[in-house]
């Protein structure tokens, strides 16, 4: 391995360590950023640049132009790559390895805001009511769905939920979200009641010693996988006659949307969802706007004249 190649490798290794230890980014984000940075390093090396510190803004723009010309990435992927590049050079600035940040003139592509699928309150109730409680996993599946909707959890937060995270007497649960950030989420009495019913069944069955503190277990007493939760949601939506394409995250979207529709403060919703930026939470105001816009159009008096 020549010296120039070692420089790229060492820089990437140090940056990955920074993201993991200092920024506490998720494993998926670290992996994506690593791939993006490695791809950019290869491009710069082919241009005769022997270290990232020597790259100019023109070099970085040339890399982005290369991606656009080849058509190998969409706007969303391009935006992520730009975020990775900016994070790298921000770190190089902190390390005093660059005097001037070449990313200052980089612009992220404008993205069309994706409006997620949401369920109505009636559809949520239909899914909950469709669970057959006479089946061995019935109470568990009902509790899973209730918790997803009542607390707006990510699926990873649900499967990682511990018994010691449940504070039912105070009507909240403790959740560890992205980057292991802890937050307290209110939980209503209906969800608490459903979980308690399930826990009676859970404690009477097999429990793997390694999973004694995990709330939701499979039939063998081990921790549920994310894939299993996706399967449960899909099957119950089908049983309820819901034709929308949904996932566990749909319950999170629905939870937030219904809160906003009922006048909840956006900052409070942000805290409950564990969003680092209020901009992420604002998507639910767009969903609410879309709903009342449709209502106005459907009931506008001029529609009767057409």
Structural overview:
The chain is mostly helical and 306 residues long. It has two domains: 3-105, Orthogonal Bundle (DNA polymerase, domain 1); 121-296, Intergrase catalytic core (hpI Integrase, Chain A, Orthogonal Bundle). It is 57% helix and 4% strand. It has a three-stranded antiparallel sheet with strand order 1-2-3. A hairpin with a 5-residue loop joins β2 (172-176) and β3 (182-186). α6 (138-151) runs antiparallel to α8 (189-204). The longest helix is centred in the N-terminal third of the chain and has 20 residues, at 27-46. The protein is elongated. The termini are far apart. Mean pLDDT is 83; it is low at 292-297 and 299-306.
Q: What key attributes describe this structure?
A:
three-stranded antiparallel sheet; 2 domains; hpI Integrase, Chain A; mainly alpha; 306 residues; DNA polymerase, domain 1
Task: Set down the secondary structure blueprint.
Blueprint: H1 3-21, H2 27-46, H3 57-70, H4 75-94, H5 121-129, H6 138-151, H7 155-159, E1 166-167, E2 172-176, E3 182-186, H8 189-204, H9 226-239, H10 248-261, H11 266-273, H12 278-281, H13 283-299
Antiparallel strand pairs: 1-2, 2-3
């Amino acid at each position: 391995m020549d010296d120039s190649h070692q420089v790229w490798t060492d820089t990437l290794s140090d940056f990955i360590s920074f993201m993991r230890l200092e920024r506490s980014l998720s494993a998926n984000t670290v992996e994506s950023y690593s791939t993006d940075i490695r791809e950019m390093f290869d491009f710069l090396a082919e241009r005769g640049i022997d270290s990232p510190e020597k790259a100019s803004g023109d070099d970085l723009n040339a890399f982005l132009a290369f991606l656009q010309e080849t058509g190998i990435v969409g706007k969303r992927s391009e935006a992520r790559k730009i975020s990775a590049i900016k994070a790298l050079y921000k770190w190089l600035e902190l390390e005093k390895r660059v005097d001037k940040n070449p990313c200052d003139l980089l612009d992220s592509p404008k993205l069309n805001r994706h409006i997620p699928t949401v369920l109505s309150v009636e559809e949520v109730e239909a899914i909950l009511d469709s669970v057959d409680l006479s089946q061995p996993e019935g109470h568990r599946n009902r509790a899973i769905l209730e918790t997803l909707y009542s607390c707006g959890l990510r699926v990873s937060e649900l499967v990682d939920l511990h018994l010691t995270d449940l504070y039912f007497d105070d009507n909240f649960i403790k959740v560890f979200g992205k980057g292991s950030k802890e937050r307290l989420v209110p939980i209503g009495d209906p969800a608490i009641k459903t979980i308690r019913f399930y826990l009676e069944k859970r404690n009477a069955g097999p429990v793997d010693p390694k999973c004694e503190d995990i709330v939701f277990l499979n039939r063998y007493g081990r921790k549920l996988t994310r894939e299993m939760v996706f399967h449960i949601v899909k099957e119950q939506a089908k049983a309820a006659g819901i034709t929308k394409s949904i996932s566990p995250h749909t319950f999170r979207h629905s939870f937030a949307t219904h809160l906003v529709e009922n006048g909840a403060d956006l900052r409070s919703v942000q805290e409950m969802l564990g969003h680092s930026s209020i901009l992420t939470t604002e998507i639910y105001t767009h969903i609410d706007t879309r709903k009342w816009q449709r209502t106005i159009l459907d009931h506008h008096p001029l529609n009767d004249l057409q």
